[in-house]
């Protein structure tokens, strides 16, 4: 009996906790709190936070190779399958109409990717700080946070720096949730009141054939120039083709509803498995959180500055605020641009105009990911 | 790699990466513009909201509505 | 030609049947019959029964390592993934409101677990009968039938006694379906007419915050005291958090509809693979069926007796019948309590009062499973 | 293990298991009671049935209903 | 820098294309075009065509063992899981009522399988042409195209000739889409105007019990006589039982909606992985396309001829046109029979009468597949 | 196998395959006919379209409809 009691006690959490696990369970709970109470990207951060709690339970080894989270991680993230399926679902949800209606604004989605590559630079420079040690692959995986696109960040991190994946995913989704707080000051700092008041002309109608041809031409372009980006871009285009072609609605509906929901649950839990204390509680994580913030800020600034250039070039036809939407963080960043625009002029509705750069930013980040995978991978 | 090499590498990546992003997205602008010129203009009809005929809801709707209207009718004594 | 005919004949079922396979195909058909005609847990017993038929087809080897059922078994049950996903869906479906409204009734869900541990004892004692040979792990896996909870039984059996899994799952679901027949005589035997007529006061309203905190505190408690129960309890809590937090309805809807349906089909077929004649047609199976019945009966009795104690302690504020719902078998056992209550007093609605002990029984069984896995596993 | 050891083991498990179940569930009762005291009382409003705004059904509803009401109106000759 | 540019150039598609890949990307685009613009089985041919494009992207290796398509192929088609799940969904969608109402017409679904076995003969004979080299297994896999049933063809090909799977799947779905063009001339050639004008009496009502017993008896018969067909027939019967039993609607709805949609997307992409240039661009592919066309034509002819025999035997009670529906290609071939019937007599509605032979053709092909797997596999 | 053997094999398969298909499907005809004789005739009621009670739509329907009818009532000034 005594032996049994000892055995039972020896198998309690109380007897087996490491301090790191306690901290990480609290961190998981914090993510859940932020998701529920503050609306921080709850679709992802609730599963990730809960997965982080489960991963740090002593004895149970749920994130180990035979535990549920470990199995999900191995079969869905290590393989790259989950982020690609999410991207298919995103494609099936995305309306590229605004982008097609005014393609010149795509350039704003290009400029905002500057945040990625500047951060790469910064991550490498961090090696000068004692205690930080980032390889080029690590730095590239961290930099992609600046893409403000969850599945892209997870896909790249799973390929280049799986040990950092937990911190990278948490940073990416947290900062996406913080976009309404991070972006406005930068946007206001870099623009004049007059620029922010700029109204934009209504978008032209985009026909069905143009919408069908878009995913195909985008994929073709990516194939020709940057095939390493084609898994991501390809699945995005596949989902979008299912949506736009109009003859397989049952497939596109499943892709953007049940399938993406299932994969989101699994992906979140699996990412959570990388919040295990021994991998997460390192000085590197602090570096990642700092760099992620820098990446978002630089990306926003680059987008706005490009917006100012377009404002000049077009003689005031483009509101520079929509440049900030180029970081992606769909559709939050577009809403922020709209909000800041409304603050300057209560009759200035920028939402649809910002959607073009916003979805262009998704493509831009996927292209940037392709470059990183090609050169560093 | 030591820190110097890493910095050099990432400088290269900065150039290559932003280069690739701009080249591809500018080409995309070109292609979209070209396609929009080539494709015959469509009228923005958007038609009547085409209902998905595979959904079984409609008949239910109508049944429920008929019941509601019937009840309403009765309640008005007509 | 003749050779071809011989080859074809040699590949017919007629030429290859073993008597055991014939018996087991009939057994599978019986399960399907009971499910359709008698309403025996059809969601599980139709797939299990059909899987049992498929598993006993000669030549085809559908339950073998390269057959569909074998693949499903390996990837979903051996790994533990399917029962855990079912538990997540159950969590997303379960309303813990009644339990939160009157937490003292949880004790009824604890008492009913006595069925599990008494059966463990019984299973070991069966070794005295010649021909029966149950290891401690076997006995523990059989005992969990008394938990009256399908996924818990399958999860524990897959870990402790995979060879007995088919018989254990069939027994668990069959007895759950038989709850309306097994429980009432025991309930009536142990209670007086006056006790059965006891009315209970209306439940208090339970707020949203309490509902959100419940899965988190339950998980925390389990982590601290019994981490081996956290895969089961954790997924139950995760599903329930998705439901109650109110910000990820698309995930909780998928978890409790499409995802649980898909997993139910796969789980049922995979369990059916363990109805292969050579594993199922043993004297052990008879023992398992007997012990399962004992487990349900003892669990019911223990719940009712604890109900009688609460009736005394509270001065007649608790109807002892709801103790029977503590075995779980959600929501069947709660309905049985309601039915027997109505028989005694036509104005006595116990359903909501029985739901508290009913869902507490799910937690109780998961805790019991954790103890068995910690000590025996 | 022989039968004696097995019986002894399962006797232990009976004690440990029921002990663990009761301890954990009684602690749960305590925690729930505590939480319900700490959490500020909510009014059982249940509000109006909040409709999920992401469902595209509503507009269809309204269209169908308008059609039905229209038809009904017409049939009454008003 | 220069080195980086070279590295980037070396990783472009332009620098790595083989001519075969260019051809196959064009072929994938053609399938997508046919699916969208011409309505060629879009549910399958869009994913297959898109998968074909992705599979032929240089550098990215998406169809390789670590790429998305390769993973889907390995886990879903090599294992046989995807076609079997599709068959389950087909079972959950199929109404066997017309077949049960007039069972004698099943014989038409048997006759049409002649297309399969004649094509087997033809495929072997093709070995006489220099450059063609088909083993018996290859020939059997090609012949099954004549079954006019996608999942059956994919299942058999994945077992007997995985290298030919891409061409076989493309041929099967393309010819199914072409049924309205391939069948009518053959049907008109073999029938007289008077035969085509034959009206058929209304079908009797079929009760629920008959509907429930049908999948079970069909499975039993297959078990007894041809167990190698039971994976296919079994999953078809399982899906149909879920549908007809009436007590597990949530499972049958999931099987015929979300689950079949998810599997269709995955199956299509995975089949596309077999359109990689080095496997597809062979003289064998031309042979497969030719033989597939022959298979459809012979199958149609055999069905119609059997229809003529039944017309004689029944004294004009059976319209021979419905024999053409025996090839399956559900429900297209039944619609073609109806259309050709209407052309002959504007008041002659054959659709429901043709549905019996049509679904019988599915069973017939599965039986034929079982024979091929038993003897050749 | 050389071509002769292959042709012979496929000739065999032609016979065996069509044989199996016809035997199984003819037996199926027999069984179906037998079953339809043994099973007591059912009346083709098809009943009223049973609505799936698990769908939460209905209450929404009714709410929306009531609102619509209410609005319509008001607009008619009754
Ligand atoms: Na981006
Ligand atoms: Na229980
Ligand atoms: Na067929």
Pick out the low-confidence regions of chain B: 46-65
Distance between the termini of chain A: 56 Å
Strand content of chain A: under 5%
Helix content of chain A: over 70%
N-to-C span of chain B: 89 Å
What string, H for helix and E for strand, traces the elements of chain A in order? HHHHHHHHHHHHHHHHHHHH
The main pleated sheet of chain A reads as: none
Shape of chain B: rod-shaped
Rg from Cα of chain A: 22 Å
**Largest sheet data of chain B:** none
Q: Name the quaternary structure.
A: heterohexamer
Number of helices of chain A: 20
Give the strand content of chain B: under 5%
Spell out the blueprint of helices and strands.
The complex is a heterohexamer, with three copies of chain A (377 residues) and three copies of chain B (78 residues).
Chain A: H1 2-10, H2 19-37, H3 42-55, H4 68-78, H5 81-93, H6 97-101, H7 106-111, H8 114-125, H9 136-143, H10 150-160, H11 165-190, H12 193-196, H13 208-225, H14 230-245, H15 249-256, H16 258-272, H17 277-280, H18 283-313, H19 332-344, H20 351-375
Helix pairs in contact in A: 2-3, 3-16, 4-16, 5-10, 5-14, 5-15, 5-16, 8-9, 8-18, 9-10, 10-11, 10-20, 11-18, 11-19, 13-14, 14-15, 15-16, 19-20
Chain B: H1 3-38, H2 57-75
One sodium ion (NA) is lined by residues 147-149, 327-328, 361-362, 364-365 of chain A.
């Amino acid at each position: 009996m005594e032996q049994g009691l000892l055995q039972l006690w020896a198998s309690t959490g109380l007897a087996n906790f490491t301090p790191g696990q306690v901290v990480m369970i609290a961190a998981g709970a914090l993510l859940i709190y932020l998701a529920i109470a503050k609306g921080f990207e709850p679709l992802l951060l609730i599963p990730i936070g809960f997965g982080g709690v489960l991963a740090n339970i002593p004895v149970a080894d749920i994130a180990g190779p035979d535990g549920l989270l470990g199995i999900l991680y191995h079969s869905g993230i290590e393989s790259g399958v989950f982020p690609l399926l999410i991207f298919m679902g995103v494609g099936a949800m995305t309306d590229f109409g605004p982008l097609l209606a005014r393609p010149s604004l795509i350039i704003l989605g290009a400029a905002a990717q500057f945040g990625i590559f500047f951060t790469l630079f910064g991550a490498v420079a961090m090696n000068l700080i004692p205690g930080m040690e980032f390889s080029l692959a690590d730095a590239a995986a961290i930099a992609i946070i600046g893409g403000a696109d969850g599945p892209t960040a997870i896909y790249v991190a799973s390929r280049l720096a799986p040990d950092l994946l937990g911190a990278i995913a948490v940073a990416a989704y947290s900062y996406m949730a913080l976009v309404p707080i991070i972006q406005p000051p930068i946007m206001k700092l870099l623009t004049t009141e007059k620029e922010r008041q700029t109204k934009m002309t209504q978008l032209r109608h985009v026909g069905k054939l143009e919408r069908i041809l878009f995913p195909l031409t985008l994929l073709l372009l990516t194939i020709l120039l940057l095939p390493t980006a084609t898994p991501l871009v390809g699945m995005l285009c596949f989902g979008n083709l299912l949506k736009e072609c109009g003859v397989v609605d049952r497939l596109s509906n499943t892709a953007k509803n049940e399938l993406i929901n299932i994969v989101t649950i699994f992906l979140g839990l699996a990412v959570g498995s990388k919040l295990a204390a021994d991998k997460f509680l390192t000085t590197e994580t602090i570096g990642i959180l700092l760099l992620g913030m820098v990446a978002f800020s630089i990306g926003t600034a680059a987008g706005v500055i490009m917006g100012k250039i377009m404002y000049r070039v077009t003689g005031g036809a483009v509101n520079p605020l929509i440049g900030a939407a180029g970081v992606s963080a769909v559709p939050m960043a577009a809403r922020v641009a709209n909000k800041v625009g409304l603050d300057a002029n209560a009759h200035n509705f920028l939402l649809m105009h910002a959607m073009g750069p916003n979805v262009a930013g998704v493509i831009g980040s996927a292209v940037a990911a392709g470059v990183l995978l090609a050169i560093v991978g | 790699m030591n820190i110097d090499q890493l910095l050099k590498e990432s400088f290269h990546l900065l150039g290559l990466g932003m280069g690739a992003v701009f080249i591809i997205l500018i080409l995309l602008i070109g292609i979209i513009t070209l396609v929009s010129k080539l494709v015959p203009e469509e009228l923005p009809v958007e038609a009547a909201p085409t209902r998905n005929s595979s959904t079984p809801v409609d008949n239910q709707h109508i049944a429920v509505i008929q019941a509601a209207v019937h009840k309403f009718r009765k309640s008005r004594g007509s």
